[in-house]
Amino acid sequence: MAIGPAHIYLKKGIEKGIEKENLLAIYNSSLPQKRNFQTYIHSLGHLCHFSGVNYHYLRRVIKREIDCYDVYPIAKRSGGSRYISAPEDELKDVQRWINRYVLSNVKPHWRCFSYHAEASIYNAAKEHCGSKWIIKLDIENFFDSVSEIAVYKLFRELGYNPLLSFELARVSTIEPLRINKKMAAKWVNYNTSSDELPYSRRNVKYFGRLPQGAPTSPSISNLVFKGIDEEFQFFSEKNNLIYTRYADDICFSSHEKSFNRESAQQVVSYCSSVLRANGYATKKLKTKIIPPGVRKVVLGFNVDHDEPKLTKAYKKRLESHIRGVEKFGAIAHAKHKKFDSVLGMLEHVLGLVNHAKLVEYGYAVGLKNKLDTAKQRQGFIG
Fold first, then answer.
1. CB 331 within 8 A of CB 324
2. CB 280 within 8 A of CB 140
3. Within 10 A of 304 (CB to CB), how many other CB atoms are there?
4. Is the CB of residue 55 less than 8 Å from the CB of residue 74?
5. pLDDT (tens digit per residue) in 222-255
6. 44, 45, 3: which is closest to 24 by C-alpha?
7. Is the pLDDT of residue 91 over 70?
8. Cβ contact 63:196 at 8 Å
9. Model pTM?
10. Which residues of 325-348 are buried (b: 16+ CB within 10 A; e: fewer)?
11. In the prediction, which pLDDT does 145 show?
12. b vs e for 202-225, b when ≥16 Cβ sit within 10 Å of the residue's Cβ?
């Protein structure tokens, strides 16, 4: 039974034969969630009632008895692959419910510019316009670095009881197939012989991690990282820096004349140590210190001006796609650029155009019109 207005809830509960004292206890325990505009859930059965997902199915998910993710690689623009773990429909339904009614109502740190209602990659870049120095760090395997233990602690902080927090953490994470030996201390579940109720640890080799592809993962990553965001912001205020985070992209900037390369190295050293202490690692090749006089690019935008601008490289890449579709046709261009499908290539180009609209609207609309004309001529749109 959903907990709505107190008097109606009590009335309906009493009609169902539930003791008034029990109803009051449940209602009072729901108040912390109500204050945060979250939906109160008191058990797994209650979650199943709200989400419409089968109870026995969800129990098997939590016990790690079934494989409910389709794991596949996608190519990264920088080279290599990232693995997407797409949940099957029934699990995705409950994850969407959790994201909508629990997680989306919890605000991330105000210096986080990704994965929430007010998120903006443009605004994140804009914060660094006019800076003299920029320090950029990239977190390696961002989602993979968030363990089910951290997720459990998050749900506890949101006011949910220990058992339900454990269940929500299991529903929101995936057990890895294998773990690098160097990472065993963090991920291996050494006590696998316990059959203690309500959930046995038997046959669960590893602690779960956030799957890249689950509806809950972006919001959870933001909220788990909130403490580090707070620490980095405090450090920034103390050192007259500007701090932003967009997903796994961390950026600091300074306009101080006294700031120098040694100062920048200290920022890198401090941030790396904080991240290591919290189970994260940085990509060394993507750690960059950009001094005065060098073109500054943040999140793909040129921030050397008062407002973010598209980079010349971005424009060249976008115009090359449009020209290729116009001159050689979408099919030939997709093959030349080694896309898996023509429609995939066209969606990619449209994404580039929409990104350009954030910054140079007129320029982007002109290219969009050219793309639409070419697609229509080649029979891709009516």
1. no
2. yes
3. 14
4. no
5. 999 999 999 999 999 999 999 999 999 999 999 9
6. 3
7. yes
8. no
9. 0.85
10. bbeebbeebbeeeebeebeebbee
11. 94
12. eebbbbbbbbbbbbbbbbbbbbbb
